[in-house]
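Researcher: Next entry in the queue.
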Amino acid sequence: MSTVVLLTLTGLGLGALYFLVASGLSLIFGLMDVLNFAHGALLSVGAYGTWWAASGHLPGAGSDGFGFVLAVAFGTAAGTLAAVLLELAVIRPLYERPREQVLATVGVGLAVPALLSAIWGADARPFPGPAALSGTFGLLGAQVPVNRLVLIAAALAVLAVLKVFLGRTRHGLVVRAGVEDRAMVTALGIDVRKAFTLVFAIGGAAAALGGALGGLYFGSVDPGQGTSLLIFAFVVVVMGGMGSVGGAALASVAVGLVQQFANYYTTAGLGDLAVVVLLAALLLVRPSGLTGRLA
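Model: Structure for this entry, 295 residues:
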């Protein structure tokens, strides 16, 4: 029983990390029809920004208490700024040229890890997380890492914010309308470009937060971390339904649990194969994914 509890909560924690990455990816694709292959780079920027700040380089930031909160805020802000710059400098000029758009984001996705590696080296750096989040707590006989609960709480908060943004805010409605008929919205005097930049900023913030908290999960940061997580984020987006944030949430839970249980009860490493099999089986039954719509 204790093993099942531990695997379930660690699987939910891993799924929460996948969702933080996949939610922004799904949001950007669903609202803007942009397949952003540089999304993993935004996660890396958030991870390294948090690591840099928590290591004592940012005044007031640190690895404990409020200092760590400040470090996470700094890393998230760095990833958000990177997302805005990416949209303004790379994506915006290529909205009508999807092929070049994909090539450009792939290039950025390769360049950022190389830049991080050139500055701080290719080796993994220990992540200076708070001592309070490095321990465990007892639940039904299992000793569960505390940081898994932090990831789950962060994922739930991001899901709630995205739901409110899409359904209850003026900006969310403007972006929806701009996707359907950009000329009409522009004729009404609304600058759709600013709304699209906001969507990119929100997506980048979610990815950067995933990078910031991913350091707690893995215990380290490295230049290729964003790229490896991006692969599973794409799996989550496809399983959930292209453009569906709610579907991405359900798919991330399924992927995290399947991966954890498969790795434990079979040979280590077969969890990745199990996820691919799950994806193939789902697409055979439901080609559009779990929902297949923006929700």
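Model: The first strand starts at residue 125 and ends at 126.
Researcher: Noted, moving on.
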